[in-house]
Amino acid sequence: MMETTILFIDDDLKLLDLLCHYFQDYHYKILTATNGTAGINILNTDKVDLIILDIMLPGQDGFEICRQIRSESDIPIIMLTARGDELDRIVGLELGADDYLPKPFNPRELLARIKAVLRRQTAVPDGLDRAEHKQQLVVKGPFQLDKNRRIVSKDGTTLSLTTVEFNMLSVFLHNIGIVLSRDRLLDLVRDRDYLPFDRSIDVHISRLRQKIEVDPKKPHFIKTVWGVGYVFTVE
């Protein structure tokens, strides 16, 4: 089994020391950086499976670092903040973070969230025969979803999606024409591994529309059903 590598970007040395010891007990490989530049340098030289990114960093803050990472990679990101500010949470999600955890937190909760994000990202194992692989392909309208390789294309062009965006689009493609409430989407997309953010679905919907709609302000595929939720159509 390949070792999972987690990069912590945080300038709180005591917290880094605590988390390093805690997660090493669970057989994770831990890399650390105390500022965004050092974190980016590590990403350029080491294979990293998930990033824990603090918002309050010296120099460039976590938002800017998240923006830089997302311009190059869809690697899962969990953001940390001491503020507990809802606006910070929304901004982080809009920039492409997969999850968000306010400080102080219990390391056990962070571990649960890491496992949940990695589990959602994990692809179907290789070695499928042709019939099995065919079952992993979903073709609806201009979209083709390959669940085996976790790739979605629209009109033949591969979409660059975060883990949550991929899972959300997958849910929609399996439920075309069915109105899904926010709670139902949270159930299907995030698996209720922890208490979800009350409005995070709206943020991810907005980001997904930016990537699949010709005009996100007048969506053709993901339509809002006011007072209920969303419905996906390819007509």
TrEMBL record:
The keyword DNA-binding applies. Keywords: DNA-binding, Phosphoprotein, Transcription, Transcription regulation. Residues 134-234 form the OmpR/PhoB-type domain. SMART domains: REC, Trans_reg_C. Residues 5-118 form the Response regulatory domain. The keyword DNA-binding applies. The modification 4-aspartylphosphate is found at D54. Residues 134-234 bind DNA. PROSITE patterns: OMPR_PHOB, RESPONSE_REGULATORY. This is Response regulator. It comes from candidate division CSSED10-310 bacterium. The lineage of its organism: Bacteria, Bacteria division CSSED10-310.
